[in-house]
Each structure stands twice: as C-alpha cells, then as structure tokens.
Description:
Layout: H1 4-14, H2 27-48, E1 54-57, E2 69-72, E3 78-83, H3 95-100, H4 103-113, E4 118-123, H5 128-138, H6 143-151, H7 155-168, H8 172-184, E5 186-190, H9 197-207, E6 208-209, H10 212-225, E7 232-234, H11 235-244, E8 248-249, H12 258-271, H13 286-294, E9 298-303, H14 309-322, E10 326-331, H15 341-347, H16 354-361, E11 367-372, H17 377-380, H18 384-402, E12 409-416, H19 417-422, H20 424-429, E13 441-446, H21 451-458, H22 467-472, H23 476-484, H24 497-511, H25 519-536, E14 540-542, H26 550-558, E15 562-565, E16 568-571, H27 575-590, H28 595-599, H29 607-623, H30 625-637, H31 643-655, H32 661-670, H33 674-685, H34 689-697, H35 700-704, H36 709-717, H37 725-737, H38 757-770, H39 786-799, H40 817-825, H41 827-834, H42 836-841, H43 858-877, H44 879-886, H45 895-905, H46 913-921, H47 924-927, H48 940-952, H49 955-967, H50 973-985, H51 999-1005, H52 1015-1026, E17 1042-1043, H53 1053-1061, E18 1070-1072, E19 1077-1079, H54 1083-1096, H55 1098-1109, H56 1116-1128, H57 1134-1146, H58 1153-1165, H59 1173-1184, H60 1200-1208, H61 1211-1225, ...
Helix pairs in contact: 1-65, 2-9, 2-10, 5-7, 5-8, 9-10, 16-18, 23-24, 24-27, 25-27, 27-29, 29-30, 29-31, 31-33, 37-38, 38-39, 41-43, 43-44, 43-45, 46-48, 46-49, 49-51, 51-52, 53-55, 54-55, 54-56, 55-57, 56-58, 58-61, 60-63, 61-63, 62-63, 62-64, 63-64, 66-67, 67-69, 69-70
Amino acid sequence: MPCFFGIISINKLSKRGTDMPYESGGRADKLGNKYEFNWIVLKFIDIISEKIDAIKIEPIGPEGECVDVLVRYKNGSTEAQQCKGRNASKESWSLADLNQKGILKSWKRHLERDPQVKVSLVSPLSFTNFSDLIYRAKTNDEAQSFIEYQVGTSSEVRKLLNNYIGYLGFSKERDIRKIINFLSRTVIRQEPYPDNEEFIKDKVSQYFIGDATSIKSKFINLILQGEIYGRWLSFQDLEKFIKNEKIEFRNLARDDRIMPRIHILNDEYKNSFKILDSGLKIRTQFDECKKYIQEGKSIIIHGKAGNGKSGLTENIIDWCNKSNILHLDLKLDCYIPEGTAQGWGEKLGFPASISYCLNAFSKENNVVLILDQLDALRWTARNSKSSLATCLELIREIRNLNLERENKISIIFVCRTYDLENDSGIKALFENKSKDDTESWHKVEVNELFENEVEEILGSKYHSFPNKLKQLLRTPSNLYIWEQINNKEEYYQITSTYNLVDKWWRDLSEKCHDASLIEDNLSDLKEKFVKLFTDTGETVFSKRRLLGNERALRYLTSQGMLTEHSNKVSFVHQSFLDCFVAERMILDYYTNSDVNDILGNKTQQNPTRRYQFQIFLQSLLEESEKDFLNFGTRLIKSDNVRFNFKYVFFEILGSIQEPSKKILNYIAELIQETEYRNHLCQTVISSHRLYVNFLVEEGIFKKWFDENRILVINLLSSISPNYTTESIKFIKLSIANSDDKNEWRGCFFYDYHNDSEEFFKVRLHYWKSYLKEPDLFGDFYKNINAYTIKIICLFLDKFQDSDNSNRFYSESKEFDEDSHNYIDKNCIQIVKILLPYLKKYSENNSTKYNPTLKERDSLQRYYLHLLNETNKCLISKCPEIFFEIYSNYMGNGDYLYNEVILDAMYHLPTNYFNTCVEYLLADFDKTLFEKSQGHSSKLFLAKRLISKVSQSCSLEMYNKLEEQIIHYVSPEAKQRLARRIERNKSQDDYRVYWPFWGSLQYELLSVLPKERISNEVIDLLKVLERSNSFPDSFYGSHCGSVVSPLQGKNISPKTWRNILISPKGETKCRWDSKRKIFIESSPRELAIDFRSTVSKNPKEYVSLFLNLSSNHKINEHYIDGLLEGIVDLEKIPDTVLSDLEFILLNFVNENNWENLYYFFRVIEKHANVGWSEKVLERLNYYLKKTDLDALDKFNENQTMENYLQQSYSTLRGHGIHALTKLIENSPTNISYFKNTIISLANDKTDYIRLNAIFLLYIILDLDKDFARELFRGIFTDEKMLAHWHSNYILYRLYEDEKEQIQCLLQLAFDSKDTLLVKNASCLITEIYLNKGDMESTVYSGSGLQVEGICQMAINYLKEKNHEDKSKKIILSYLGKNVTNLEKILPQLFRDDLLDIKEDKDLIFNLLTSEYRDKLYYYFLESLEKQESISEYENIIFETVCNIVSKTNKLKLESYYYRRIEEYLSRLMMQLYDKHMGDDIADRCLNIIDQMFENEFGSSRTLIEALMNK
Length: 1509
C-alpha cells in the first residue's frame, strides 16, 4: 500500500540498514550478483578480444580473500578485483565503507603477499577523492615530495591519507614508501556498464553471430554452474565452451563481402550528386566538420532545401578519400532504416550491422558514416518511428564501440533545419541523456553561398546582375540550373526558381532533336511526372511507371536534370516538379478552367500544392496584372478554396515592391470589405510604405479613424519614418486632436536618421511636448548628424535631472568613422551648442556632483564623451578658439569644469605647453582637482597633463611647477588632521592614521620627467616612497571582512600557547588599507583560526589545550574553536578521545550557548564513537535541563514554518539531534535514554516536543509500542503536524491511534496556518485514498485545503487502485470555484501523469475548465515530447478547435501565447506528415485554415510551417 510520505521516510531509514538497500537474501543478492555476473561476461569478451590473458572467478586460498575476480594480463601481472554493484543506499564510496566491509585489510594482505599483484574495486559508484590520492602516489617517486607537495597542499587529501594509514595500521614516518607503493598498486574502477543491459548485448553482438540475449544467457549459465570457479579460464577454455554451445564467432575483419559493398554504396551516393561546371565548391563549413571528425565527434549538417548540404558531404568524402579514412555514405530515402541495426545491415548487403563492419575494417584510423536525407524518413518511411528507432540503435552501437576506440567513428546526419528543430522524433534522436559531453552532437548549419563565393564561380559579371537574380543564385541548386541554361545574357530579368527551370526546360526542348527526340517526347514525360506527383505525392519514381519514355529519360539524365539509381529516377531537386505543376496551372487557367479545376478539391490543397500555387500566382502576375487580380478575386470569394490558399494571394500582393495604380486602387477597394480588412492589413499593407501612404491620400484612414483608431496608428507606425507630406500632416493633426498622446509613440520608435526634415520636426515636437520618458533606439555612437545633436539637446533639457536618464543606452562605446567625420567638420558649432549644459551638470548646480556623488548616469556619460571628443577636434584645428570659448569656465574651482578642461588641454600642441603650466599654477585649488569622476580619480587628469607638458615646457615654467607642487598644502589639511586626532582619541571609532601632507606631492612628482627633476625632488620621493600609506578616500568609512591577524599564516604551537593563555579580551578593529579588511585580534576571531589548526593536528592541540588549562584560565571562545575543529574531523583519532572527553566534561560552560552547541555537535557528528558513560550521562543531564531554554533567543509570534525552522536551532534541539544520531548508530541507546526520551516527549515547551519527533521517527521502526507512548505525549495539539516527519508517523500509527489522529488532522485542516493546512490536507487525502476514511473532509475543502488535496490526488494518479479516486477528486474541484489551482494542475501534463486514451474525459474537463488557457500550453508541450502523436488525434482535434475558435480569446502572457502558436503549427504539420492522404490530414489542414481565418497567432509562423513542407 503506497504512502508518499512513507516512501521518503523508508528510503532514509534504509541508510541505517544493511549493505544493500533492498531486502536481504532475495532481490538484493540477485541485484548484486547481476552486476558481478555482467562484469565477468565483459571479462570473457576481453579474453576473446585479447585484451587480457585469463580470469579466475572466486579464487580459493589466500589469493581469494575478498576477491570476486582475479584477472591475469598479457604481461603476467594480476589484479584482484572486488565487485560491488551497490554500497547500501549511498551514491558513492568512502574509506570508512571499505574499512567496514573489510576490503582495506584484505587489500593490505594481498599487496604484502605478492609484490606484482594489484587490487581494485569495481563499482558503478564513484570514489573520486581516493582515486585522486592514488593518482598522486603513482605520479611521485620521492616520498618527501609526495608528503609535502602532493598531499600537504590539500587538507582533504591529507585527511584522506591519514585515514588510509590509520585503517591499515601504518606509521606515516616509518612506512611512507610502503604506503606509496600500496596506493600505486590500487585501482578504483568506476564501471557503470555492467548495469547497462544494452551495452552488454552490443558487446556480445560485436563478437558473435546470433541473438545477443541468448548468447549472454549461455555465458551467465557458465558462471552459475560453478565448475569454472577457482581455476584460470583462458581463451582456449572459452573457445571450447563456445564451440560446444554452437555459438558462432563474428570474424568481420576477414569477410570479403564488406569492402566491395561499401564501394558500391559510396559510388551510388556520389553519382546522385551533380556538381557545378566549375567543379566542387569547398564550403566554408568544411574546416569545422574536418576538425570535429579528427576529434572523433559526430555531426548534424542542416540547412534549408537547396542550400548545398550534400555539397558539404561531398567535401568531406573527398577529404576522406585523400586521407585514407574509411567512409560509408547513404541516402536514407533510398535505403530506409528498418527493423534492428543488424537486420538493416543485412538488407544493405552486409553480414552484420554497419557499425560493426566499419569498426572491423578500420581500427587504427578514424571512420565516417554519412546518413543523408534524415528528414525524408518523415514521408518516405512507412513507419518513421521504427526507422528512427533503428537509427537510435545504430548510434548506441557506435557510441559503445567508440569507448574502446582511440580513433573514433563519426556519424554525420544530414537534415533540413526545419525538421531538425520541429520534428519530435528527429529531436529525440539527438538528445543527450547522459552527462557525458562526448555524446553531444555538433550542429553545422549550411547557409546560402556568400556573394564573393558566387563571384568566384561566375566571375565579375555577377556584380552587374539585378539584385533578385544575385540573391537567387546564392542558392547552390539555383546556381546549378543557371550553369545549364543558354544565352544567359538575355535573362538578367530572371527573378525566381520557376524562371530558371522554365528557361532550362526550353533549352533542353530545343536541343532534344540532336538526341533523335521531338519536343512532344519530353512534354509527354513531363506530364507523366506531374500526374504521378499530383496523384501520389512521391518524388522518386520507379522506371516501370514510366514505360514508353525510356529515350527521354536517358536524355534528361544525361543533361543533368534527372538522377537514376536502383531502377528509380528522380529530379536533381524537387523544385523542378513544383515548377512543372505550376506551369500546368497556368495552362489550365488560360484554357478557361475554373479556380477549383486548377487547385483541385480541398483534399488536394495541401502544403506541397500551396507552394506550387504560389509559383503559379507569381507567374500569372508577371503575365498580366489584370488576370492576376481577376483570378485573385474569384479565389478569395470561392467557398471551395482553403483559406491558407487565399492567403497566398494576399502574400503576393504584399510582396509587390512597386505596385501600379491598378493594384493600389484594387487594394483600396478590397479593403472596404470588412471580411478581408484585418487579413489585408496584417499581410499586405502593414510595413508597405506605398500602400499605407496611398490609403492616407485616398482619405480611407480618415474615414476609419473613429472606429479603427488603433489599427490606423499601427499601420502608420509600421512604415515609420517613410511618410509622404500628406501622411505627416495627417499624423500631426491626429496627435493634436488625440486624447491619448501615448498611442502615437510607435510612429517615432524607428531610426531618426532616415527622417525627412518635415517629419523630424514633428518628432522633436512630439518628444518635447508629450513624452514623459525617453524612447531610446539605435546607437548614438554611430552615424552622428545634425539630428543627433538636436536630440541630445532635447534629452539634456528634458531628462537630465530625471531617473529616466539612465535609460539612455548605446551598445557601442566609441564613435564610428562617420561620427568622427561629422564631429570634426562641425566641432566649433557642436561645442557652442553643448557647453551651456555643463553648468547644469557642474558641482555648483547639481546635487549629482557634490561630495556624496553617485555614479554618473548613462546620458551624462554620453554627453561628456561627446563633448570631450568634440574638444579634441576643436583643439587640433583651432586651439585659440578653444581658449576663447572656455574662458568663462577656466580657473573657477568647479570640479566638473576642471575635468573637461584638463581632458581637452592634454591634446594641445607643444607650443601651448607653457600656457597649460601657467594655467595650472594660477591656483592649484581651482585648476588641479576633479572629483567628478569619483575620489579615486581626483588627480588622474592633472597627472596625465603634467606628465606630458612637463617634458617640453620652458625650464622656467618647469621650475615653478616643481616648486609649487613641493610646497602645496591643502587649505583643508590642518582642519582634517585635527578632526582625525580627536576621533582617534575617541573610544567609539576605529583608529586610523592619515598624513596631512605628502599624498599630492607623491602623486604629481612621480610623473615628472626623470631627466628634469631636481635633487630635492629625488630625495623627497625616496622619503615619500618609504612612508607611502596615503589615504585613498576623502571620507572615513570603510567596508570589508573582519579577520584575525593570523589568517592565512602558519602559526607554531609555541605561538598558540602564548595566544591561548593571553588575558586579552575584546579589542577594537583596525583597518588594513592594503588588504581592504578589518583586523581584530579578539579571542572570538582568533578562535576561528584555532579551529582550523585543531582540525589539522587534533592530537597536538588537544594536548596543548589541556596542559595549559591546568594553570591558566583559557577564554571560552577557544573551547568553541577546539570543539568546532573536532566537528570538522572525519574521524576522531583514538589517541585523542580520552582527552576530548575530559574537555567535554570539564570545560563546557553550561551557561554559554556556544559551548553547549559545540558539545552537542561533537556528539552528533561522531555518533559512531564509543562514548564513555560519563559523556552520555552529561548529554542526558543537558537534555533534561529545562533551564537551558532560557539561553535560546526564540520568537514565538510567527508562522509555524518559521517556528519550526527556529526550533531546530535551539540548544536542546541540537541535543535531541545528537541523541537521534546516537540511536540511529546504535538502537541499544534507547533503553539507556528511555526516561529522558519520555520526558522530552512530554515537555511543556512546544518546540522541544517538535524536536522530539526526530526521536519518534527513528524509534517507530524499532519499537512500535514505545513509539505509540511517545506519540501520545508529543501530539497533544495540532502544532506538531508542522514537522516534516509528522505525516509519515501519523500514517504509520493511523490504525492504532485513529480517533486521536483524525481529531488532530481536522484541527490542522481548519487552522489558519499555511503549513498546518497543507500538511493536514495532504495526509487526509492520502488516508482517504488508501484506507477510505475522512471522505467527507476531502470533498469539503476550500482555499489552501484544496491545493493540498489536489496535490496529493495528483501524486497518486499513477498508482494502481487509486487512479479512479484521484481523478474523481480532481474533477470535483475543477467544477468548484473554491481556490486557484493554476499552479498545481500543469503538473499533470508536465510529469506525464495522464494517459490520453484512458484519461480522455479528465483531459477534456481540464482543457475546458477556467484554467484552460495555461493548460493548453502544458498540454501542447507534453505532446511535443511524444515520439508519436498518432493515437492522440481525437483529443488533439477537440482541444485545438477550442484553442483557435473565434470565440476563445486566450488570456495569457505573450510568452505562453507565442509558444502555443509555435506548438500548434508544428503539431498540425507533424500530424499531417503522418497521415498524408487520409482524413486526419484533411482535419489538420482544416485547423490550419481556421488558424489563418481567425487570425490565431502570427500568419508568418503558419506560412513558415507550411512552406517548409
């Protein structure tokens, strides 16, 4: 009977149990043996593959002690292996585990007995730190360096080595060489593979022919019979067994069928690829692929149709041939994977799976397997799911083979991007379900050719082609056709693939007479292709279906339009078929066919037909605008045409760049019909400047404005700033008359650089008059022009004192070349415009630059950067104008002015250096300092300038500068010094000593040129360098950690002796300006370092503490440090235990919270120590001492969750945790502490009883009667249900204490505390589901109660015998408006808890409930994860119809809405792919139509999904 609270608790309890987490004697032994048996099978295979010489299973005598398998290697050495599939319920190994199981002692005896033997642990679990210690021992020959460098540098490794030495009974000083030798001969083999049945079967299949499961069973039987135990088993023994069992070796390396078959298949692949006349083009992605192959990685090559993915594989094949790399190349649409990997290999003509064949013939080099046309499996395979499963098996086989190969097998899948990203089956193929990075797939995307690549092929004439043709020829498949056609110079107006195909076909028709054919022969064949394609949807045709056209077939094949293999023909690219079908539509149109005759019925109006129909409409538009518009009108008014086909007409209207007057008038007339208005606006008019401006000029927007104001504004915004004068007038007038000016912001979002002068004026007026916060766009460091300067001024006027100024952000931090040129050309004008704003930013006029300055905002930073850049240009051209413009800003002591002026002066030419020095000397206090960038930069600009000008100024000016620097004293220095002296005298502040002179001198004299400085300066600098501890701040505040002066130092025992007996108490902190920390030599801080010292050497320092304590009073903080150091130990050394107990009994102050805390923590951490009765007695005493509760700082007024957390950290709470660990380690402690446990269970303090639940939890599984007694004492009120073990305990005791438990649960259920309600609701529901009680309570919930009830019902949904009750609960509350279940219900889909077939009613209720909007997202997301969705069609269609319904408006955040839109589009396409030609496919197309018609989501997403078909 399941119990979810119980499961958690039982798992915890199992950690205290036996070696296995399962029941002993049955399942545990089987599972343990299963791992060992599988390991032995793998060793059999290692013998067969000649990796090892022989094995001995369960050896007898001394060599068999704690040994499961003895392995003998080819060099004669042996390894004694202990196989452990589990370590109780632990997830790793520790030395203590090995010691407890006797493994370490047995290893010692083996290593001592035979100096050639190695010992090893074979397990799927990790033992990382011991493996690290072994590695350090193996890589070090010298004992001293091993101890000092390999071990001494890591406390963890040092502790591990000490434990290892202790367990083996060695001495580090005496036995270190032996220890290193033993470690070097120890191996930790973390081997997960014996747990992996698929891996075992793959290994068996690699070496034997036949059913892998059956063969493996025979090997297991060999082990179980026991006849081979205790003796060496070699290749000869196994060979005899294999022969007797009629198992056949797979000797692929000698099979002469494999290589010829590889050559045939590779030739077929190569012949299907048509290269350009100029030869095979090396794609830019080739080097990336080559690198991955050399690294042994696998690749997914993807891209759009026609982009040249197969061309890239040809690059790889050529390189493989030149590099003698074995490769196999297959097109999956020709050789569809079926059945097992073995079966598919045989169908391909191989004796085994292709993975094993490739592995056998190239062990010393890399191997490449190319699997092209992966996406084709979606429509060519009868069961694509089965085909993908075959591919997955092949991937697994190769992954396992690569584990043993130095040179790997690389798989290269080739797939269209759309299918890779959207097909759930294909995506699942490449999921990395392992944490091993080596399994990851490297995606390489093949895009169109770059223009320079096309130019290399076609020559310089390519640049003279029209843009549309240039873009068209970047697609390799189009470029291939271009090379085939004649008279290219006459066809520069080709704008589509259709034009290319049509021209090539006409060329071929003209030339066919040379092949003794007439044009009718080709036309007949083309018509056959079109009919077959239209009827079946197939793109590869059997030659038997084309009888009578053999000569035409041969001709088209020889001309490169068709390819042939295995008696089947296909076009080199599907675009040919599409174009021929579109051509047929054109002919039908001009023979007066009806719309329905051209398109076919709705079943035939599928995605493939849609693309062909698009080609037809584009061709019709090129033929005649009049015919195009007439046909379009008939199309959109027809009831027999799918809406997504009508949408093609809108798409083409929207793509016309320069519409004629006829088309403009047609749009203006059609848009009056409300039925099409929204679709036209979204697809045709939006973002099309000619259409939008035309509608303004025609007065249509003016007519709509009152009823469709937002639509009009959105359309106008979509073409910003490309407005005609008429549109600008309309916008300006409309804004003026608008009540909500914000509605028009969209018209001004876009790049201002392209504004007309007329519109820019409107922009500035709008921003200045109506904007409350800036709309920022673009990059103000790029392409600066007059508009930019005006916008900056507007922002400075409007936002400089606003918090919004921080929203002024530019990605670049440097001006581009265009901006530099503009600034240089207009520098005088720009400085004059910008400089007045400096006053507003100055220290005197803005709080942003007073001594409490905060960080400069982004608008200010940009403004100063632009001003500095402009000053640089001005100074380089007209320095005299700089001084003229800045005369009113110089020498007035403003820090911000100084910043700008000092920065600019640095760029003055040499003949102005004396002027600069003269300016500085006028008054250092007014010219030198600039705090505007922050105190750390107050002299940065002055130093930079002085460093430069002092090199070349006159000697007279230099001497004056040096003199003034030496004798400068700040006016504030004396006052600051006096204040500091007074503060240092105060007892309330930290002592800091600052010099009042010297800082400025040191900073400025240091940058003077060495060749000019006087002897006085040289001597002064030497003095200043020796005492250079100048303040780095104008202010006295510091922030940093508080540490002792010992931190990071290696302190001797003698020093610690002096520290421990020092009477010094609390001390003040002092600030260490170099380290940026506070130093405090108080006992509290020093105790932290003492803790670390004790943990490294407990024996020495515990003894030191005791020796000193006999004659000295030691501060209690050091007791805390000592005990904390003991807590840090993995194990208390036996030599320390007695002294430690003495300290625990005699030095712990029962009035000191910290002392008591560490007393409890030592016992809790080391509960497995055999503590003396005196220590246990003292623990007993403290647990019963209720006075200790007064030492706790406890806040009663809080939620139960906070109360619970706080209760765990109380003193007696920690004592109870220690007692719990003691009982967990040794249940006999229950009897010793029994009276105390009863006392704790009946304690009057709630939080003590809460902690006592930990004891009850442990005792419940050891002594149920005693547990019941404790339960009655602890659970006197509902508060106790807050504890996380409470529900487990109440569930276990429910039948014994039913009345009391029901009463407690009802009280907690009705409580106002969140945690109590949640716990009670969950347990009440669990009791109802398992025992049938409290049904009325379960169905009477509201608010938080319902959340708990439904959560537990969801948890039980997958449990047999509980599904119906759980569903009933969920359904019941779905129909009641008693709480919000929005956060809980998605779990049903997220965790795959529902079966779409069995739970159809529940799913339907969920998806029609008030929570449906969010649940739609999770439902569709769950479908994305399904490998196959075919069986879910009915519920999918019911749900999807509701989602896309016109009446259903989703109330969701934009993220969820977009995702639903994407999921739906993909979902419909997936279903359509799986059901092409049946009713389901039609229903999918109906849904897509509905989505178009009801404007569900973005039409762009839908069109992309359709066009990718």
